[in-house]
Specification:
Keywords: DNA recombination, DNA-binding. InterPro entries: DNA_brk_join_enz (IPR011010), Integrase-like_cat_sf (IPR013762), Integrase_catalytic (IPR002104), Tyrosine_recombinase_XerCD (IPR050090). This is Site-specific recombinase XerD. GO terms for molecular function: DNA binding. The protein is mainly α. It folds into two domains: 82 residues, no CATH class; 170 residues, hpI Integrase, Chain A, CATH 1.10.443.10.
C-alpha cells in the first residue's frame, strides 16, 4: 500500500484520490482475504459482478473506482492490465444540467444568510469548483483589480477569474460582518445547526447542503449540484458572447475539448436552434 500511495503521489494525484482508490482496493482484498495481485481474473470478475448487483446506481461508482484502483495497483507493480483481465470503462456521454439566469437569481433570492449568497456568488460568478470555493482566502481577493486568484485548483494550477462588482459589494459586507481572519468562510461552528460543520471552514457536505436547500427553496425542479453552477457559469458566458478560449482559461481546463462541451448546450445568438413547430404554426395558422 505504501508503494501504491507513492505512485499516486508521484503522478500528481491528490490525497483524496489515493484514499478513494485505496478504499476500493482494500474492499476486494478483505472480500477474498488476500492481495489483489494474488487473485485470478475470474475472482476479480466475480467481485465486480457482486458490486454491480449490490450497488445498483446508474453511474456504477463502486464498480468503476474499483477498476481504476486495481489499474493503479497493477501499474505500480509493473504488471499489465490484462494480468487480471480488467474490463474497459466506457465513459458515458452525458451533457451537464444548466440553470437559466432566472433560476440562478431565484436561488440567490431564496438565501436567508448573506454567507450563503456570497457562496453561490463565488460558485456561479467565478465558476469555482467546490474545493476552490472552500479554499478562498482573504489574500486571494483583489477588489481594486476586480480579480480573484484561484490557488492550486484542479491540476495544481493557479488562475485568475474576474470579480463582479455585485459580488465585491457582497464580499465587503460579509467580511465586515463576519470578520474572517484567513479563510473567507471560517466562522465558529454552532451546535445543532442544519448543515453540520458548515460554519467552521466549509466542508464539502456543508456546501452541498446550501446548494440543495437554496435550489429547493427557489422551486427548481432540475437536479442541482454544486458543480451545476460552474456548468451554468461557462454556458452563460458563451451565450453572452465570450469566446471559447477565454472560457477555457477561466475554467482552468487543460484541453479545449473539455470546454467545447458547452457549445452543445449554449443557445448562441448567431446559431440559435429552434423547433419546426414554431415555423409550422407561423406558416399554417395564418388566417386564409
Amino acid at each position: 500500500m505504501a508503494r501504491f500511495e507513492r505512485r499516486i503521489s508521484i503522478l500528481g494525484r491528490s490525497q483524496s484520490t489515493f484514499e478513494n482508490y485505496a478504499r476500493h482496493v482494500a474492499g476486494i482484498s478483505l472480500y477474498y482475504g488476500k492481495v489483489p495481485t494474488d487473485l485470478d481474473p475470474e475472482q476479480v470478475h466475480d467481485y465486480l459482478f457482486y458490486l454491480q448487483k449490490k450497488f445498483k446506481s446508474h453511474s456504477q461508482t463502486y464498480f468503476k473506482h474499483t477498476v481504476y484502483g486495481l489499474r493503479f495497483l497493477l501499474k505500480g507493480e509493473g504488471l499489465a492490465y490484462d494480468y487480471l483481465r480488467l474490463p474497459e470503462i466506457r465513459h458515458e456521454k452525458k451533457l451537464p444540467v444548466v440553470l437559466s439566469k432566472q433560476e440562478v437569481w431565484s436561488m440567490l433570492q431564496a438565501c436567508k444568510l448573506l454567507k450563503h449568497k456570497v457562496l453561490i456568488g463565488l460558485l456561479y460568478g467565478c465558476g469555482l469548483r467546490c474545493l476552490e470555493a472552500r479554499n478562498v482566502r482573504l489574500q486571494d481577493l483583489d477588489f481594486d483589480r476586480k480579480q480573484l486568484k484561484v490557488v492550486q485548483g484542479k491540476g495544481k494550477k493557479d488562475r485568475y477569474v474576474p470579480l463582479s462588482e455585485h459580488l465585491i459589494r457582497g464580499l465587503k459586507k460579509y467580511i465586515e460582518s463576519e470578520k474572517p481572519q484567513d479563510w473567507i468562510f471560517n466562522g465558529q461552528p454552532q451546535s445543532g445547526r442544519a448543515g453540520g460543520d458548515f460554519d467552521s471552514r466549509y466542508s464539502q457536505r456543508g456546501v452541498q447542503w446550501v446548494i440543495k436547500q437554496s435550489s429547493k427553496q427557489a422551486g427548481i425542479l432540475k437536479e442541482v449540484h454544486v458543480h451545476t453552477l460552474r456548468h451554468t457559469f461557462a454556458t452563460h458566458l458563451l451565450e453572452d458572447g465570450l469566446d471559447i478560449v477565454s472560457v477555457k482559461e477561466l475554467l482552468g481546463h487543460q484541453n479545449i475539448e473539455t470546454t467545447m462541451e458547452y457549445l452543445h448546450i449554449a443557445q448562441l445568438q448567431h446559431h440559435k436552434v429552434f423547433s419546426p413547430l414554431d415555423t409550422l404554426f407561423a406558416t399554417c395558422s395564418r388566417p386564409v
